Amino acid sequence: RGIHPEMPKTAIIAILRIVLTAVIVFGFPYLIRRIWSKSKRGIIQKLLLVILAVYIVSVLVITLVTRSYDEQTGVILNLTWAYRQIFDTIAAGYEAGGLLEAVKRIHWVRGTISSLILNVFLFVPLGYLLPLCFARMRRWWKVLLIGILFSLCIETIQFTTHLGWFDIADPIYNGFGCLIGFAIYRKQLSFIEQLPCTDSTE
Question: Which of 100, 127, 169, 189 to pair with 134, CA 20 to 30 A apart?
């Protein structure tokens, strides 16, 4: 059983996509810190609001606009289906040809693996942009709640417009991404809490 000639190329593309997303998502807080140290607070406030708006639009484009109409849609309630698919594929490869074949077959589920990772990464910016822009969002549970509600709205639109399946696991991954983003905010960006925001402080 040999590897399909296209496998290395597509695998590299999938890895590069994840790496590039990680660099953008986790490198952006560093950029905010640099801008903060060299700009006026009023400019920073407006810039952060623009960034939040651009981010929200970008998420909607990625999750809705880039998708195509699908006749078959439904609701996925199994939270572990992706992990089961990955495990079964690797296990079948191990039984068929040992460890080497199991490693080769990881390529077969690269789409599922990359989707799991990107579902988390996609909502990390929301986790640190919300508390940066709005003083009332400087509680982890508020950020988590907004993230899950936003994700549920996207899933509902995908389902009702036949742009995708309603996967109950996605809001969980997205919510986890929000929590990572909030942790980044608390660790690297909480010093900006003195920034005048668009709403009153708590």
Answer: 169
DSSP assignment of 65-115 equals IT----S---EE--TTHHHHHHHHHHHHHHHHHHHHHHHHGGGGGHHHHHH
Sign of CA dihedral 162, 166, 170, 171: positive
Q: How far apart are CA 62 and CA 104, in angstroms?
A: 29
CB of 174 closer than 8 Å to CB of 119: yes
Relative to beta strand 75-76, strand 166-167 is parallel
Residues 144 and 151: their CA atoms lie apart, in Å, by 11
Q: Specify the pTM.
A: 0.84
Write the pLDDT tens digit of every residue in 143-182.
999 999 999 999 999 999 999 999 999 999 999 999 999 9
- Closest to 87 (Cα-Cα) out of 105, 62, 64: 105
Whose tokens are 């990107």? That residue is 118
Residues 6+ apart with CB under 8 A from 81: 169
pLDDT tens string 54-78: 999 999 998 999 888 888 889 999 9
Please name the helix (run of DSSP H) or strand (run of DSSP E) that holds residue 166, with its range, or none.
strand 166-167
